[in-house]
Every structure is written in C-alpha cells, then in structure tokens.
UniProtKB/TrEMBL annotation:
GO terms for cellular component: membrane. Pfam families: AA_permease_2. The keyword Metal-binding does not apply. This is Amino acid transporter. Keywords: Membrane, Transmembrane, Transmembrane helix. GO terms for molecular function: amino acid transmembrane transporter activity. Residues 480-496 have a biased composition (Basic and acidic residues). Residues 477-496 are annotated as: Disordered. It is a multi-pass membrane protein. It comes from Virgisporangium ochraceum. It is found in: Membrane. The chain crosses the membrane at residues 35-57, 63-87, 99-117, 162-180, 192-212, 224-242, 263-286, 306-332, 353-377, 383-405, 417-437, 443-461.
Length: 496
C-alpha cells in the first residue's frame, strides 16, 4: 500500500479522529476509564452550582424583579444550544481536551492551540478566583456557626488588604493531592459534595415553601419585559461549567452513552434547582430585599421566614459548593493541558501518567502549585472576567466544530447527534457572540494580549514539536483524510 501523496502539515493541520483515539491507548499516556454516568453528571453539577446561585439571584432580582424566574429559564435555554454541541462531539471524540481536541479534529492545529491556550487561562484564573472566594466564605461560615473569624492578614488576598490568603492556598493544595490520587477518588469526593450542596438548596426551598406568599409576584414584570433578557445575560454565567464534563471523556467507562447524559442531565438538574430556588426566594422576600443583600438566600430566610439560624446552613452549603467547583474545574484544566502535552504542543514529558495512580501526577502538581501562588498573591479582580470571554469563545468554536465535522466527516459514528443541525449550533454561536460583545473593552484587550503571547509560544515551540509534524504525516484537511482512510476500510472496520 503506498502512502497517499499529501501536503506537509501546515498551521491548519487536522488530527484524524482515529489517530486521536489510538493515542489514548499509548503506553505511558493511557488514562484509566473508571468514571460512570452518575459521577460524570455530578461533575457537571459540581462545576455549575457554586456561589452563583447564592449571590446572583439577588443581582438578577434587582434587574428583573419577580420575572427573574424567567431569566433563569432563558439563560438555561441559551446554554442548551452549546451543551448539545458539546454532547455530540464528546460522544464522537471521547478524548481528553474538550474544545481543544474538538478544534484539532475540525478546524486545525493553530485554532486548537488558540482555544487550548485560552482554556488554560480560563480554567486557571477561574480556580484561583474561586479559591479566593472560598477563603472569604470560610470566614463567613466560621462567623455564622461559631462567631469567630480568621485575621485579614491570612484570609484576604493582597488587593483586599490582606498579606497571604492561607485558606485559598490550602484548599487548592488539598484538591491537587486528591486529583493526583486518582480520578475515581476525586469523582467520589465530588459526588458527596454535590449531594451536600443540593441538600442545602433543598433545605432553602422547603423552608421557603412553608412561608410562601404570592404578594411579591405582583406586578410580575415590574421592571419591564426587556429586563428579563438583561438579567439572563448576568445569570448565564451561573450555568457555566457543564463544559468541564467533556474533559473527562477519556476516563469515562462508556463515553458514547454517558457523556451526553451527563452534559445535558447536569444542565437540567441545575436549571430545576435554580428555578425552584428563585421561586422560593421571591415567595418569602421582595426583590428589593434580595438585591440589597450580599447573601440574598440567608436574607430571605431571616426576613421572610424568620429563621435567623439558617445562615450557617447556607454558608456551609456555599462553602461545599465552592470546593466542588474548584475540584471539577481544576480537573478540567489538567486534562486539557495533558492533551496539549501529549500532542507535543507543550512538553510531552508532562503528559506521563503515574503508573500507580493513573493520573498525570507531575503536571497536576505543577499546575496546582502555580494556581496556589496565583490565589495567594495575585490581584484577580481585573482578570477574572477573562473566564467569561474564554468560555464563550470556546462555545463558539465547539458549535462551529459540529457544523464543520458534519460536512467533512458525515460517515463518522455519532452516538449522539444535535437535532436540527446546523440551526441549533448557529443559535449557540449567536448567543455566545451576543454575550461576548457586551463584555468591557479592557477584557477584550487582555484577552488579545494573552492570545498573542500564546501565538509566540506556539511559533517558538509548539509548531516545531507538534506530533503531526514529528511523525511526518500530513493531515492537511478533510479531503486528504478521506483519501488516506478509504483504502484501509473494510466491512469489519467501519470508518472512524
């Protein structure tokens, strides 16, 4: 069999899906498939439900009044379009890397590098920012439950008058150790934490229903119908996190079945809890009471239901919620970085899997240490918005990836297919661009600077060391792929 005469791989070299799948079985780079549908769904819920619901409901109520309930539904609908695209690609390409890997298989290496570099920052800043918030919430819990607080010097980041955020560092290091120990252990710990925070929200919902009144629902559109969309744009970011499920593709026991269930299921579960929580909050407290509080759910129980002692329960629920967010998002970052290293775009030695734990231990320790330093010392207020623009950028590329792969590889097995494609992926792109356009100019400038730095690193290192270039195999585009694949196919060996 002669090798097809194809061009030398260029900037837009595309990784064949079959080669990506073969890569997952390489000695030293093989992750353990040990996570089922329940744990994957819990990962999605763990990443989505953080402090957002405990805080953002107050902001939303201040904008839309009682109609904030519809804002939660609208934000969920906006997420669904991208979630469906993630589900299709995750089931079709069950390989670590999430949007990075999907871009590599559809849009080319340079696009994959850009989104991978973007996701490294997005996930890293997100973990550091959430860890800083964990330190603050730890103090809130100590005060609510025991009437004590840690000194500001060791519990606040420097930009807020502290010296060293010790709680943030400790929680990041603890999560790092857990992730090194194994994905199964991490998934089990997350499942427990997800159960606790859902119980905390269920506690609020049940108590709210016992004192429920309809008086605060009139007028329902107190701020006008347009306010529903405005509030939804803010609430949208309380749903972000379902994409982290796709980073577990390579460690899922039955990825073709379980990943779509987990991605879509986690979004549905969170939407139900969010809507019920919003209904309960409006039923016992007015929108004005909620918007003026930094802890709107605790305020609702205290002022509306007369249960002041419930503050520590919600504070504990928020603390656990934040912990699981750190765990899942940091897990996602390590798997994206792992995929980039295995592809040669980053140092390949970092992609070595620990023989005992079955995890990229060295890589996890390095990232955990860097994030701990970031959480302890670096001001985060200005760069945290990069999390939003990075996520939305990933959403755009994943939706584009579905459309492109449908055209270039129509014969590829797809255990789950986005219905009404390309309409729904196009809607996902439109929603993401709409929200990106509303972000501040400073966020865009920092985003472009970060990507420019990434392009420089790619030119100096990634392009030369890329696996497709070292192998000398051109994967220049879909036409070349089809020609190269065709002679090898048999009835027993379906197209990848």
């Amino acid at each position: 069999m002669t090798t097809p005469n194809v061009k030398k791989p260029g900037l837009f070299a595309i990784r064949d899906v079959s080669s990506l799948l073969t890569e997952t079985r390489e000695s030293g780079h093989e992750l353990k498939r040990s996570v089922g549908a329940l744990h994957l769904t819990a990962m999605g819920v763990g990443a989505i439900i953080g402090t957002g619901i405990f805080v953002v409901i107050g902001e939303g109520a201040g904008i839309a009044g009682p109609a904030v309930i519809l804002s939660f539904v609208l934000a969920a609908v906006a997420c669904v379009f991208s979630a469906l695209s993630y589900a299709e690609l995750a089931s079709s390409i069950p390989v670590s890397g999430s949007a990075y890997t999907y871009a590599y298989a559809t849009l080319g290496e340079i696009v994959a590098w850009i989104i991978g570099w973007d996701l490294i920052l997005e996930y890293g800043v997100s973990v550091a920012a959430v860890a800083v918030g964990w330190g603050g919430n730890f103090n809130v819990f100590l005060d609510a439950a025991f009437g004590v607080q840690l000194p500001d010097a060791i519990s606040q980041p420097p930009e807020e008058g502290g010296v060293f955020n010790l709680p943030a560092v400790l929680v990041v290091l603890a999560i790092t150790v857990l992730l090194v120990r194994g994905v199964r252990e991490s998934a089990r710990a997350n499942l427990v934490m997800v159960g606790i925070k859902l119980l905390a929200l269920l506690f609020f919902i049940v108590i709210a229903m016992t004192s429920f009144s309809t008086k605060n629902f009139t007028p329902f559109f107190s701020e006008g119908t347009g306010s529903v969309t405005t509030a939804a744009a803010i609430i949208f970011f309380a749903y972000i996190g379902f994409d982290a499920v796709s980073t577990g593709s390579e460690e899922a026991i039955k990825p073709q079945r379980d990943l779509p269930l987990a991605i879509i299921g986690s979004l549905i579960i969170c939407t139900i809890f969010y809507v019920l929580t919003a209904v309960g909050a409006i039923g016992i407290a007015s929108p004005d009471q909620l918007k003026e509080s930094e802890a709107p759910l605790a305020t609702a129980l205290n002022d509306g239901a007369g249960i002041s002692w419930a503050a520590w329960v919600l504070a504990f629920g928020a603390l656990v919620a934040i912990t699981s967010v750190i765990l899942v998002i940091m897990y996602g970052q390590t798997r994206i970085f792992f995929a980039m290293c295995r592809d040669g775009l980053m140092p390949e030695k970092l992609a070595r899997v620990h023989p005992r734990f079955g995890t990229p231990a060295l890589l996890t320790i390095i990232l955990g240490s860097l994030i701990a330093v970031l959480a302890a010392l670096v001001p985060l207020n200005e760069i945290v918005q990069l999390v939003n623009i990075g996520t939305l950028f990933a959403f755009v590329l994943v939706n584009i990836g579905v459309i492109v792969l449908r055209r270039t590889r129509p014969d590829m097995p797809r255990p789950y297919r986005v219905p009404w494609s390309p309409l729904l992926p196009v809607l996902g792109i439109a929603f993401a661009i709409y929200l990106m356009a509303d972000l501040p100019l400073g966020t865009w400038i920092r985003f472009v600077v970060w990507l420019a730095l990434g392009i420089l690193i790619y030119v100096l290192y990634g392009y030369r060391n890329s696996r497709v270039r070292r192998a000398g195999v051109a994967q220049a585009g879909p036409d070349a792929l089809r020609k190269a694949d065709a002679p090898r196919r048999t009835d027993e060996d379906p197209a990848p």
